[in-house]
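Much of what follows relies on a compact textual record of a protein's fold. A complete example follows; check for yourself that the lines match position by position.
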Amino acid sequence: MGKHTRVVGVFLFVTALGWPQSKSGGSGASPYSPLPVTEVRRPNPVKPTPESIAEGKKIYGYDCAGCHGATGDGKTEAGKQLKVGDFTDPDTLKDRTDGELFYVIKNGRGAMPLEGDRVKEEQIWDMVNYVRSLARKKPAAESKPSE
C-alpha cells in the first residue's frame, strides 16, 4: 500500500503542475483555487547544490517517479493517463516559482497527494531543486560561422 500511495502522489504532483492559473490570482477558469500569494512568492532557502539535488532525487524516486517517470518525462502508464507534464522540457516549469512547487509538493493539488509532514521542509526544497534540475537545456539555435 505504501508504494501505491507514493505512485499516486507522484502522479498528482505532475498533474498539479499543469493546472491553469492566472497570475492575478485566478479568473474562475481553473478548477483549482489559486495558491496563496505569499506562498507563490516564497523564496527557496536551499541552494541547488549537488548534495541538495541528490537528496531531492532520492525522495523523488520514492514518491514521484511512479507517475512522473525516473527522468521526469512523465512517460509512465500513470503519467500518460493523468497527462502529467514533462519536467525535462524547460518550458514546463518556466512560469512556476519555487514557492509554487514547494506549496504543491507539501500540500498536494487536485488528485495529487501531499507530502505534508512525511518529510522535512528542507527535503521538500531539495525536491524542488531536483525537479528544476531535470529540465534539459534547449540547444542553441544553429548559426552559420561568420567568415
